[in-house]
Recover the amino acids of this structure.
C-alpha cells in the first residue's frame, strides 16, 4: 500500500482529499482549510469553522494553499514591489528574475526572485554563476504559485507576507521621520542595503531610544503603489505599550502621502509573535515565500 503524503506544518492552509469510512457514499472526502493537527489523526478547520478529521493513513492527496484565496497576479504585484523595495546593494534583471546581492545583509537582500510570469527554472544555472562571481551562495526566494517546483525541496528559510489597505491613523506618540537611518539604527543591516530602493522612495521612522521602522513605497507589477514595512523594532523593555503601532501608523501616513494605497510586511514563519503583531495592527496573512538553495534545483 502506498505511503500517505507528507503533511505541511500546523497552521498551513491546504486542500486535502481522504478516504472516508468503508461503506460511505461518496467514498472520498475533500476539505479546504487550515491544518490544526497532523499526527496519526489529521484535523482541518474549514472556513466555516467546522473541523474535519481523518486518519493520516487515509490521506490520498494534499496541496499547500496560500493563507487565503488570492489570484497569482495579486501575489506577483506585492512581490514585485517588495523586491524593488529591498534590492540589496546590487541587483540585476535576468529573464524575469530579479537577482539581489547585499553582502552582510539578510537572505532577502541576497536572493533571486521570479517576478515575471515567464520566469523559468532554465535560468537557474546563470543565477548560480552570478552569485558565484560575488562569492555568495545562490539563494532563490520563491513565492507561492509564482514558480512551479517540487514540494520536497528543503527550504533554508520561509517567510509569510501580510497585506492590508492603508488607513489614516494618527500615532499616539510623536514619531520622527528621516531620509537616512539615524544613530539609533542597529548595525546588523548595512546602511547601503537599508537605503537602497529601485524606482521608489524610502523613509526611516523612530521614537528615539524606543522604536524604529523602515518604510518604502514602490510600484507593483499591476501599477499598485505599495508601502512596505521592514525592520520594525521596539526596545525589549518598552514592548506592548503601543510604540510599534505608532511606528506603523506614522509609516502608513507617510506612504499615503506618497501615493501608496496598500501595505505589506514580510515576516519569518518561525516567529509567530511578529506575525501576531502585524495582525493586531490590521494586516492579514496572504502567502508564503520559501528560500531555497539554487543548487538543489540545478
Amino acid at each position: 500500500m502506498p505511503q500517505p503524503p507528507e503533511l505541511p506544518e500546523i497552521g498551513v492552509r491546504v486542500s486535502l482529499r481522504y478516504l472516508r469510512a468503508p461503506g460511505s457514499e461518496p467514498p472520498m472526502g475533500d476539505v479546504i482549510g487550515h491544518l490544526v493537527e497532523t499526527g496519526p489523526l489529521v484535523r482541518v478547520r474549514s472556513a466555516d469553522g467546522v473541523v474535519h478529521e481523518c486518519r493520516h493513513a487515509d490521506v490520498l492527496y494534499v496541496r499547500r494553499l496560500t493563507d487565503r484565496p488570492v489570484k497569482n497576479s495579486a501575489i506577483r504585484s506585492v512581490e514585485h514591489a517588495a523586491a524593488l523595495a529591498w534590492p540589496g546593494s546590487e541587483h540585476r534583471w535576468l529573464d524575469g528574475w530579479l537577482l539581489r546581492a547585499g553582502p552582510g545583509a539578510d537572505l532577502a537582500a541576497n536572493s533571486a526572485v521570479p517576478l515575471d510570469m515567464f520566469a523559468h527554472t532554465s535560468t537557474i544555472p546563470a543565477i548560480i554563476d552570478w552569485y558565484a562571481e560575488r562569492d555568495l551562495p545562490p539563494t532563490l526566494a520563491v513565492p507561492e504559485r509564482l514558480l512551479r517546483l517540487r514540494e520536497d525541496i528543503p527550504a533554508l528559510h520561509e517567510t509569510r507576507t501580510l497585506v492590508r489597505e492603508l488607513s489614516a491613523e494618527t500615532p499616539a506618540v510623536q514619531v520622527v521621520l528621516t531620509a537616512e537611518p539615524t544613530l539609533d539604527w542597529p548595525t546588523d543591516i548595512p546602511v547601503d542595503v537599508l537605503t537602497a530602493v529601485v524606482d521608489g522612495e524610502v523613509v526611516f521612522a523612530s521614537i528615539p531610544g524606543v522604536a524604529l521602522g523602515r518604510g518604502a513605497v514602490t510600484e507593483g507589477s499591476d501599477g499598485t503603489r505599495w508601502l512596505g514595512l521592514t525592520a520594525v523594532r521596539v526596545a525589549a523593555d518598552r514592548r506592548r505599550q503601543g510604540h510599534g503601532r505608532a511606528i506603523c501608523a506614522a509609516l502608513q501616513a507617510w506612504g499615503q502621502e506618497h501615493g501608496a494605497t496598500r501595505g505589506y510586511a514580510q515576516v519569518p514563519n518561525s516567529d509567530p509573535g511578529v506575525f501576531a503583531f502585524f495582525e493586531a495592527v490590521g494586516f492579514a496573512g496572504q502567502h508564503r515565500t520559501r528560500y531555497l538553495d539554487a543548487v538543489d534545483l540545478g
